[in-house]
Recover the amino acids of this structure.
């Protein structure tokens, strides 16, 4: 039988106590799970198209001076 | 972006899966369409398309694994640091587990790490045990371990409320001690890893700062019942080729299987916490199968998630019986179905969505299969097939059989190339015989699983949640009456279907023969395969042998020897706190580290302490014991000698 197995069977003598290291607390922020909705999907597709075509944002382009004015 | 080779493999995989499915569906469509497609036939065709796609996917996956292994592809294309002593926490989360098993495992891993000359590993036993006897037994076992290894950094923490279950347990560690470490290795209560493998994965992480997680697939080992030994054998023969195929296709878009993986702490601290899903269980609330979602979050944040199929040195135990296997599956089914809500969430990468879809389909395939059988037997009108139709039917049946069985034989073919491996499994003859018996068993087992999974899915969709019970991790032969009570519905359904087919579709009965046979034999199959002695007898005849049974694997040997040496300790550990001064001192010292918040009225606690002092604890509930053992004043009062 292993010595460590017999130690307990012959009785436990608690050694001076030192268990867990000191805590270094921080808070984990849960990740988001946001489901798609038609509106969100449209927004995402719109944003992707803007990115792909490199068009300026709509609001900025409406009042922008004409390029060759 | 995946590299060009990986992208090509993925497109090829998609093409092969879709084209083989399309070919089969077209063929079936031409047979069914001969007299015009009815609604029933359209339903059948639709279900056939999904299920054929499902089995062809696993067929092509294995074929990719075969190619990877034939070509000796480096499946984990990462550099490795020459040496490392980066601080790493090895976490063993436990929940009302066999205490001896847990501490033997931790000790065996610790010894293996020390023997491998690896420094910088600290060990944490993170207990969520709600059984007060387990709680105290764990404290005593930890103290014993501490005395045996005074210089080892092996820590014990008991959480008084198991908020968030296993993922909450890990999160609690991360929030309190995570910042002390660069990596953590998450284990399960029955899993083991060697020091060499732990050193390997740490050096891989050191050299690859983009790697957020490396999963080391675990070999199934250590069980002796017939069912467990069949599982161990099949995972040992077929598993490496499946895992190779998966690794070959997923690259850095891998998955996390909940344990036997190393995780970069910074990545996990920032992106590993899970939200609660809105609504109630089974689809809302805490995320049950947390691992897939954690991997998806890491990938979403740009961290690489790898699988290391060739490292070895990673082990876990299979469930001992079909009953225990299906009990675990009930929980997994709920977790995987819950993923349906994450699968469609914004920002998740496509491969992560596919991992979740595959998990979902693992359980949805059964009710779909059942539905297809019902449709084929009831809705499809019996018709007199022409010779050409008969040929097409035969081709479809053959194609289905090839997709179902070829992966096993392909994987076996690859396996047989390695002489050492074959010898470690008992030799070529033993392997061939074992594969034959395993295939027979798998064929009869499939209908049992189909009915069970269909019931799980139905009950989950009806809003019935499974709890979170501790898993059975001990070999046990199931009593016959116990099996009959649980599996008579399978047999009854088998008999009922046979009668209906014989009465109304006698010509088609033989098509369903194997399926019905599995249901008829459900009770004997479950009972016989749970047998410990049959498992041993099979081993003596060289059947289902795995290397852990034929070659000495030190970490497994050590864990087994330690566990056997400890023997059973049937003392009431709850009472030991009150009756044994040393255990009481230990327990009180550990309570001081994290005093639980008590929610029991003081008067009731006093009454409990008084009853405990009189040794009148027969009527104590688990909550009573937990409350009593959580309050130092009550423990002191209950420990006073009787006057």
């Amino acid at each position: 039988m292993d010595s460590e197995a017999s130690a307990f069977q012959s009785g436990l003598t608690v050694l001076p106590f030192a268990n867990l290291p000191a805590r270094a607390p921080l808070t984990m922020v849960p990740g988001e799970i946001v489901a798609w909705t038609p509106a969100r999907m449209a927004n995402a597709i719109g944003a992707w198209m803007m990115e792909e075509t490199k068009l300026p944002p709509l609001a900025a382009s409406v009042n922008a001076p004409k390029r060759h004015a | 972006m995946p590299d060009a080779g990986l992208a090509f493999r993925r497109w090829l995989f998609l093409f092969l899966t879709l084209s083989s499915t399309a070919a089969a569906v077209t063929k079936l469509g031409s047979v069914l369409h001969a007299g015009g497609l009815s609604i029933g036939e359209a339903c059948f065709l639709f279900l056939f398309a999904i299920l054929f796609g499902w089995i062809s996917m696993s067929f092509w996956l294995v074929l990719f694994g075969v190619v990877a292994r034939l070509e000796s592809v480096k499946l984990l294309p990462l550099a490795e640091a020459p040496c490392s002593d980066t601080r790493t926490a090895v976490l063993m989360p436990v929940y009302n587990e066999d205490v001896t098993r847990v501490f033997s495992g931790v000790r065996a891993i610790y010894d293996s790490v020390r023997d491998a000359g690896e420094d910088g590993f600290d060990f944490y036993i993170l207990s969520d045990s709600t059984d007060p006897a387990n709680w105290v037994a764990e404290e005593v076992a930890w103290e014993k371990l501490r005395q045996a290894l005074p210089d080892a950094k092996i820590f014990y923490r008991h959480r008084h409320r198991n908020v968030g279950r296993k993922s909450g347990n890990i999160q609690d560690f991360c929030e309190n001690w995570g910042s002390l470490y660069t990596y953590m290795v998450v284990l399960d209560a029955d899993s083991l890893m060697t020091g060499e493998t732990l050193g390997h994965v740490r050096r891989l992480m050191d050299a690859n700062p983009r790697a957020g997680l490396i999963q080391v697939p675990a070999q199934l080992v250590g069980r002796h019942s017939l069912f467990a030994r069949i599982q161990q054998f099949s995972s040992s023969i077929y598993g490496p080729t499946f895992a190779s195929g998966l690794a070959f296709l997923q690259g850095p878009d891998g998955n996390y299987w909940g344990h036997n993986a190393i995780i970069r702490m910074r990545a996990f601290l920032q992106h590993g916490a899970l939200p609660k899903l809105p609504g109630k269980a089974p689809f809302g609330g805490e995320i049950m199968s947390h691992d897939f979602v954690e991997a998806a979050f890491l990938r979403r944040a740009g961290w690489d998630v790898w699988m290391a199929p060739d490292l070895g040195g990673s082990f876990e135990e299979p469930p001992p019986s079909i009953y225990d296997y299906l009990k675990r599956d009930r929980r997994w089914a709920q977790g995987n179905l819950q993923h349906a809500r994450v699968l469609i969430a914004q920002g998740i990468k496509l491969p992560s969505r596919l991992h979740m879809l595959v998990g979902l389909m693992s359980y949805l395939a059964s009710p779909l299969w059942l539905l297809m059988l019902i449709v084929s037997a009831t809705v499809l009108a019996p018709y007199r097939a022409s010779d050409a139709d008969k040929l097409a039917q035969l081709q479809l049946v053959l194609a289905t059989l090839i997709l179902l069985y070829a992966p096993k034989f392909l994987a076996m073919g690859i396996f047989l190339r390695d002489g050492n491996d074959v010898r470690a499994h008992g030799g070529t003859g033993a392997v061939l015989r074992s594969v034959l018996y395993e295939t027979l068993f798998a064929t009869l087992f499939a209908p049992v699983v189909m009915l069970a999974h269909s019931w799980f899915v139905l009950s989950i969709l009806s809003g019935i949640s499974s709890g979170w019970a501790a898993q059975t991790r001990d070999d046990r032969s199931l009593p016959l009456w116990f099996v009959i009570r649980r599996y008579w519905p399978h047999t009854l359904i088998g008999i009922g279907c046979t009668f209906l087919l014989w009465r109304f579709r006698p010509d088609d009965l033989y098509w369903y023969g194997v399926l019905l046979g599995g249901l008829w034999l459900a009770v004997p199959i479950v009972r016989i395969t749970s047998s410990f002695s049959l498992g041993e007898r099979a081993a003596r005849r060289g059947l289902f042998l795995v290397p852990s049974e034929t070659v000495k694997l030190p970490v497994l040997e050590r864990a087994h020897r330690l566990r056997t040496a400890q023997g059973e300790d049937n003392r009431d550990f709850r009472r030991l706190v009150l009756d044994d001064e040393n255990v009481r001192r230990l327990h009180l010292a550990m309570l001081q580290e994290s005093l639980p918040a008590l929610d029991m009225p003081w008067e009731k606690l006093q009454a409990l302490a008084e009853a405990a002092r009189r040794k009148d604890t027969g009527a104590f509930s688990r909550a009573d014991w937990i409350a009593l053992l959580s309050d130092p004043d009550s423990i002191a009062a209950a420990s006073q000698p009787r006057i």
Observations:
- The interface with chain B takes residues 1-5, 7-8, 11-15, 17, 19-21, 23-36, 40, 44 of chain A (CB under 8 Å).
- The CA atoms of residues 18 and 24 of chain A lie 17 Å apart.
- Residues 38-53 of chain A form the longest helix (16 residues).
